[in-house]
Amino acid sequence: MNYHTPESFEDAAAIAAAATGTTRFLAGGTDVLVQLRTDLVTPDDLIDIKHIPGVKQITRREDGGWRIGAAVAGAEMTETAALCADWPGLVEGMDLVGSTQVQGRATLVGNLCNGSPAADGVPGMIAAGCTVTVIGPEGAREVAVEEIPAGPGKTTLDRGEVITGVNIPPRGAHGGDAYLRFIPRTEMDIAVVGCAVNLRVDGATITHARVVLGAVAPTVRLVPEAGEAIAGTTLDSAALDRLARAASAACHPIDDKRGTIEFRTHVAGVLAKRAATIAYSRAKGDQA
Ligand SMILES: Cc1cc2nc3c(=O)[nH]c(=O)nc-3n(C[C@H](O)[C@H](O)[C@H](O)COP(=O)(O)OP(=O)(O)OC[C@H]3O[C@@H](n4cnc5c(N)ncnc54)[C@H](O)[C@@H]3O)c2cc1C
């Protein structure tokens, strides 16, 4: 195995583009190293991105948005009070990943690029309308997060492309988000269903909402019909019921011992209602 420590993303991309065998980028390593040690994936080229300047930085942009470097650990996000105040739902996804030890390493970008439909950090990013910056042989491009997952363990990134960081939009006034997941135990488990909701209010009326489901389809899924079900409402019980129906209708889950199709489909509606209620309350300033 060739272990590389490039000092720029351009070099990281060039190494990946020139590699002919199995290639992995090494961020926190909480997926890569587990796969390596269990002989699931043995990379020919392992490209450690942590020597690249700025890669561990959380930056508040001038427009009020945020930039999360590709090697920022989940724990560093939860320890950034202003980020938690702006985007509590996005941060609580990473706060659910693994244990304290795992959170000290696991990154948002690694969570996205591992390609799990159950990734806890991804629904909150998509609900927030985040983009990632991608550098590759053709130069740099900005891509909506929902365009990255391609199926279990797969992304739409081309050979030689590497993500430099996540761009979170400005929170703006009267917005709130939330992420909830169902697992059969209290921690250290993979989501059976996950749901993130991000919305904005004008007074008591929701003007715009994005609802995203995890673990109920081959990829994390943005469900526009679910957002439309609560836009223009005060989140009354009829709107919540419409939301639940739209969320459940978007499910195409697997059937396994951790959750039947029927169970996952039902829970998606329940979690959508609960996450929307928390996001609504945060948007109105009733709840942190
Ligand atoms: C005990 C344990 C518990 C866990 N619990 C959870 C959980 O509850 N929820 C959950 O969602 N996940 C969980 N995970 C999985 C894992 O921790 C997360 O997916 C984590 O966010 C991965 O981030 P990382 O930085 O460690 O990624 P890495 O392992 O470094 O990389 C993961 C993948 O992303 C690619 N990659 C990394 N950086 C880049 C980049 N800059 N550009 C392009 N591709 C890149 C790599 O090539 C690799 O394919 C758990 C893992 C363990 C070991």
Outline the structure in words.
With 288 residues, this protein is α+β, with helices and mostly antiparallel strands. It folds into two domains: 2-44 and 60-168, 2-Layer Sandwich (Uridine Diphospho-n-acetylenolpyruvylglucosamine Reductase, domain 3), CATH 3.30.465.10; 175-283, CO dehydrogenase flavoprotein, C-terminal domain (Enolase-like, domain 1, 2-Layer Sandwich), CATH 3.30.390. It contains eleven helices and 14 strands. It has helices at 9-18, 32-37, 74-78, 81-86, 88-95, 100-103, 108-113, 122-128, 224-230, 237-249, 261-283, and strands at residues 2-4, 23-26, 45-48, 58-60, 66-69, 131-136, 139-144, 149-151, 154-155, 162-168, 175-182, 193-202, 205-214, 221-222. A five-stranded antiparallel beta sheet has the order 4-5-10-6-7. Helix 5 (88-95) runs antiparallel to helix 8, helix 9 packs antiparallel against helix 10 and helix 10 packs across helix 11 (261-283). It is globular. The model has no long low-confidence stretch (mean pLDDT 96). Flavin-adenine dinucleotide (FAD) binds at residues 24-32, 34, 49, 70, 96-98, 102, 105-107, 109-111, 113-114, 119-121, 162-163, 190.
CATH fold annotation of the largest domain: Uridine Diphospho-n-acetylenolpyruvylglucosamine Reductase, domain 3
Reported for the largest beta sheet, the result is: 5 strands, antiparallel
Number of strands: 14
How many domain regions?
2
Large-scale geometry: globular
Mean pLDDT: 96
The gyration radius over C-alpha positions equals: 19 Å
What would you say the CATH architecture of the largest domain is?
Answer: 2-Layer Sandwich
Beta content comes to: 25-35%
Which stretches are low in confidence, meaning pLDDT under 50 for 5 or more residues running? none
Structural class, from secondary structure content?
alpha+beta
Strand order in space, largest sheet: 4-5-10-6-7
CATH class of the largest domain: Alpha Beta
Helix proportion of residues, in percent? 25-40%
